[in-house]
Amino acid sequence: MNEIDSLIQALSEKKKLVAMLAPSFPIAFSYPSIITMLRKLGFTYVVEVSLGAEKTNEELAELLKDNPNSRYITSPCPTVVRMVHQQIPQYAKYFTHGVDSPMIATAKIVKEKYPDCQPIFIGPCIVKKLEATEDNPDLNILVLTYTEIDQVFAHFNIQEETETQDQFDLGEQGITKIYPIDGGLAHSSGLINSFQPGEIQTVSGWENCAKAIKDFDLNPKIRLLDILFCEGGCIGGPGIKSTLTTGERKKKILDYAGQT
Q1: Which residues lie below 8 Å from residue 57, measured CB to CB, with a gap of 6+?
Q2: Which domains does the chain have, with CATH numbers?
Q3: ∠ at Cα 177 (110, 149), nearest 5°?
Q4: How far is the C-alpha of 136 from the C-alpha of 14, rounded, in Å?
């Protein structure tokens, strides 16, 4: 049974579910319409993964504080993590082990807040499915892309509509809403301003990743490599169906971050 069928079955059985909406959602859906639609679909709660991103930033800051002489490659991107382990495993030592990705951090918050509900992550990334099932099976996260949740909407004939009072049950008002943009972690955590020039490098795009990691290994001046596999960051994920350019997608995220 694939993830679409699993969610359709869970909704049909009226199970208690929490939608965890990735911070790139404004590219695919309007706000707060998406919350209205998810509630009509049958989700008990809707939470914003930007909340978990705040926890990721806190854990990373603590790791850097405790290890001032160490150097790190950020690891929220499961595609980068798998690429390194499979193709250039000698660099896996640089990953921020013990720092949860925003999806995992949010799922832990959900498990504590709503222990009788199953977390359903909705986002742009297909490799998050492996992060959920292979790396964190204990959290029982079901992962769907935006294009897949559209198919679930269609199955239940849920049309776009807006209840203006709808809002996230757990949301984030801070700057972590910019997380899906390349450099989003470095900027939202404030680390971009707390290090000397050249100590943090940000990169996105699959064709740039391997070289950036090898360059990081050879350049001890770089303390942190903030890296995402997709072009422009998570806003370029394969689970997004959009004709917008990378620049237009980035503007969508920045506009949403600025208005909420």
Answers
A1: 176, 185, 188, 189
A2: 3-259 (3.40.50.1780)
A3: 60
A4: 25
Q: Per residue in 54-98, pLDDT tens?
A: 999 999 999 999 999 999 999 999 999 999 999 999 999 999 999
For 51-76, give the secondary structure using H, E and C.
HHHHHHHHHHHHHHHHCCCCCEECCC
Collapsing DSSP to helix, strand or coil, 212 comes out as helix
DSSP 162: -
Q: How does pLDDT run across 105-135, given as a tens digit for each residue?
A: 999 999 999 999 999 999 999 999 999 999 9
Exposed/middle/buried for residue 220 (C-beta within 10 Å: 0-12, 13-18, 19+): exposed
Whole-angstrom Cα distance, residue 204 to residue 213?
Answer: 11
